[in-house]
Write a structure and sequence with these properties.
2 copies of one chain form a homodimer.
Chain A (H helix, E strand, L loop, with lengths): L1 E5 L3 H12 L3 E6 L2 H10 L1 E5 L2 E5 L3 E3 L13 E4 L6 H8 L8 E4 L6 H5 L8 E6 L4 E4 L2 E4 L5 E5 L5 H13 L4 E3 L3 H22 L3 H6 L3 H18 L6 H11 L10 H8 L10 H11 L4 H16 L3
Parallel strand pairs in A: 1-2, 1-6, 2-5, 3-10, 6-7, 7-8, 11-12
Antiparallel strand pairs in A: 3-4, 8-11, 9-10
Helix pairs in contact in A: 6-8, 6-10, 6-12, 8-9, 8-11, 11-12
Pfam family, one (chains A, B): ApbA
Pathway (chains A, B): Cofactor biosynthesis; (R)-pantothenate biosynthesis; (R)-pantoate from 3-methyl-2-oxobutanoate: step 2/2
Function (chains A, B): Catalyzes the NADPH-dependent reduction of ketopantoate into pantoic acid.
Chain lengths: 312, 312
């Protein structure tokens, strides 16, 4: 498949390497110049489950997209930071024809309303991924463990192409699944990010340490309840007990000693977080629907205050 | 005046030194053995506005109170940590006769309900102090700047003695004032602690840095509104705009570069905080009165989680 990956950070690199290896025709597009340079000069590198791998894949900066005239990707996968999605797609929109499909697997809510500006509902695919990925530096990813992808066409049409993507991802070892309700999956995963990512970042701890505090159960229940109250307004009826169980399992599982991506963005790399698409989205949607979300509000404000204090 | 000071930490040391210098008959009682030893061996020492001072004042540990048999203080001033108040007074209760008055100037709410177990309403004095104080180590305080004391008899009787205490404090340079509504003063000051102390501790910043975040105004308004809603249930009608102004002034004043006491307890010294007597008290009282206090609740939980993570 002819695939353009927009945003070649940690997760973009994983999908690029795995889809390249299984024989797809890829193009990479990224907004971070040192990353573009490194991939161009040394190839896209990774520590892939302990093995050093390199792939030579054409790469362009967002400012060089005009050089891709005539290249018509069947699929564009969005792996920018959430807050860069809109500006990145504004720059690549010339690549999008009426035949192009766009897949978004980003964490959090509200991406579809951005992408709908650039692509028709019936050419939009939504989903989540449980793969993890890290970035050691420009052009160099660290990729360990297992994961999966769940996706579906967002509009009423587009199922045939979604199933084609499932096949392509399957060949790449990405463990994809066509699901019936991507909005449910997105909200459910957002509960994981809206609890673990935020609280570990505020409290400066890893997932297992958070889970050992006496307050963990209350934190989770109250935050999940706010997500559920807002999700219900969008026709998504989260099973709060099941979601709690799902988040609670991480306290004792393989990733207990892991510092979530928001922690790494904020406390390690002093980068802007994606809070506005997680708890911040619940806060804003709650305001629209008249649903009180004080925990999500305070958490969003604390993360933003911390960003400012760290000079992000 | 015959005065026993119970709790000779930073603030207890300030009052001890100033009241000793002006000629009162003092006894010190403290629960921290290294502190008792240091004061006994080297005297109570302080850096007092840049000048080294030492005072030799009798000192007893909480376990040695029986050695004070027959010593009858007219006034006992409580300067323990809030969470040690009950256990300390349980140990010194033999010193309290029907003639003894007890003065409490501690930050936060709920101390009167503890002290009422040991002394009659009409022998209880309540108030606040705006003095600051630090502790460099056992028996060694660091005392800078100016402050004042506001106090009143808690019961309907006791005004004569309260005015006597004002005179004694006045002679000691403690800038006291007899006020009409100590509960108002206590709630108003708790709003300062419930915003600055907590947020600086959660965000790891000083007062001025907090004030420079875009979120500061919202933090203050929402937290003060919760305090006011609960205070109203106790007949205290806080002027929220005035209290906001009062807290906001600290962002630009002399103490802008100061790290609040809770920050020092928690992040610097890894000691238990007094959160349960500030935002935690608002949360618990709110529960009793059926008043929602989500910000105070989440803040209390975050501080407790941080205590646990730091092994306090």
């Amino acid at each position: 498949m002819k695939i353009a990956i927009v945003g070649v950070g940690a997760m973009g690199s994983r999908f690029a390497l795995m889809l390249h290896k299984s024989g797809n025709d890829l193009v990479l597009i990224d907004g971070w110049q040192p990353n573009v340079q490194a991939i161009r000069q040394q190839g896209l590198q990774a520590d892939f489950n302990g093995k050093a791998v390199t792939a030579n894949i054409p790469v362009y900066s967002l400012e060089e997209v005009d050089q891709l005239q005539g290249y018509q990707p069947e699929l564009i996968i969005a792996f920018t930071k959430s807050y860069q999605l809109d500006s990145a797609f504004a720059k690549i929109k010339a690549l999008i024809t009426p035949q192009t499909y766009v897949l978004c697997l980003l964490n959090g809510m509200g991406h579809e309303s951005i992408l709908k500006k650039y692509v028709d509902d019936n050419h939009l695919l939504l989903g989540i991924t449980m793969w993890t990925a890290g970035l050691a530096g420009p052009g160099h990813a660290t990729l360990f463990g297992n994961g999966n992808v769940e996706l579906k066409n967002f509009g009423s049409e587009g199922k045939d192409f979604a199933l084609k993507v499932v096949d392509v991802f399957n060949d790449a070892g990405l463990c994809p699944k066509y699901i019936d309700d991507p909005k449910y999956a997105i909200w459910r995963k957002a509960c994981v990010n809206g609890t673990l990512n935020t609280l570990c970042s505020i409290l400066d701890c890893n997932i297992g340490e958070l889970g050992q505090t006496q307050e963990a159960a209350d934190f989770l229940k109250t935050i999940i309840a706010e997500f559920a109250a807002v999700a219900a307004q969008e026709g998504v009826n989260l099973d709060q007990a099941e979601v709690y169980q799902h988040v609670d399992e991480t306290f004792h599982g393989d990733i207990a000693d892991h510092y979530p991506s928001m922690y790494q963005d904020l406390l390690k790399n002093h980068r802007k977080t994606e809070i506005d698409f997680i708890n911040g989205a619940v806060w804003q949607k709650g305001k629209e629907y008249g649903v009180a979300t004080p925990y999500c509000t305070l958490i969003t404000q604390l993360i933003h205050a911390k960003e400012e204090l760290l000079g992000v």
